Amino acid sequence: xxxxxxxxxxxxxxxxxxxxxxxxxxxxxxxxxxxxxxxxxxxxxxxxxxxxxxxxxxxxxxxxxxxxxxxxxxxxxxxxxxxxxxxxxxxxxxxxxxxxxxxxxxxxxxxxxxxxxxxxxxxxxxxxxxxxxxxxxxxxxxxxxxxxxxxxxxxxxxxxxxxxxxxxxxxxxxxxxxxxxxxxxxxxxxxxxxxxxxxxxxxxxxxxxxxxxxxxxxxxxxxxxxxxxxxxxxxxxxxxxxxxxxxxxxxx
Length: 252
Ligand code: G5P
Ligand code: MG
What we know:
This protein is α/β, with parallel strands linked by helices. It has eight helices and nine strands. The strands form three sheets. Strands 2-5-1-6-9 form a five-stranded parallel beta sheet, sandwiched between helices. Strands 3-4 form a two-stranded antiparallel ribbon. A two-stranded antiparallel sheet has the order 7-8. β3 and β4 (70-71) form a beta hairpin. α1 runs parallel beside α8 (228-240), α2 packs across α3 and α6 packs across α7 (193-217). Bound molecules: P1-(5'-adenosyl)-P5-(5'-guanosyl) pentaphosphate and magnesium ion. Magnesium ion binds at residues 18-19, 35, 37, 117-118.
């Protein structure tokens, strides 16, 4: 079994279950789950709630990091401002913004197994990640378009933790309330119908070269289906072949 630190990525269109699968991998195998969408939303939220405008854009460094993925005003004011405009329209934020944010997160996690959710999403991002490390596993989830639309419109999240619910698939114990903290759940702006359609349209074109790149490297594993619970045992087996599970939850 591998003793080296593992580097994994999950690719897939919006609503394909990347976050759900990553949550399970993190629980079962002790990976750090790093979601680009979650980091962006946290920066938007922190920016909006507590930061005065800042005149200069500064590079993130540990000096500016106040919590995992969250940077102090001088950095994230600009990141949050910019990201908000793109995310609400269902568009990708510019490569240089997300790459800088994610690579600085990874620099701080050199001694952990990690799993990227939502990054890289373009060839430019994949090439930037390439310069930092070699990947051990890349998973891509192929889910039919209609299934994706249905799922996203029924999704609710707990913003502070990033926990994801679905009113049919994994509903909270109490409607509208997070199971762990008892705090309210919200529906994200980019899960509204117009933004969902835009996100799904652009995914295919942008993801194709990224998928081809990882296929050519021999690290790509594709899973297709309409139910995460049916895909999960295959993902579990794939990871079990590389690393010993910290808990056995092959079935959900
Ligand atoms: P995000 O946050 O990375 P997306 O668009 O990649 O967003 P999303 O929406 O988070 O993807 P997901 O993680 O693939 O989807 O799926 P999920 O949340 O686990 O599952 C979706 C829903 O279906 C949930 O409610 C879940 O409970 C339910 N579900 C799961 N499995 C099943 C099932 O089997 N059956 C049923 N019925 N339900 C199920 O990025 C957001 C935005 O940030 C920017 C972009 O603007 C992006 O749009 N961004 C980036 N921009 C540029 N580059 C990057 N690298 C960027 N990363 C983020
Ligand atoms: Mg997600």
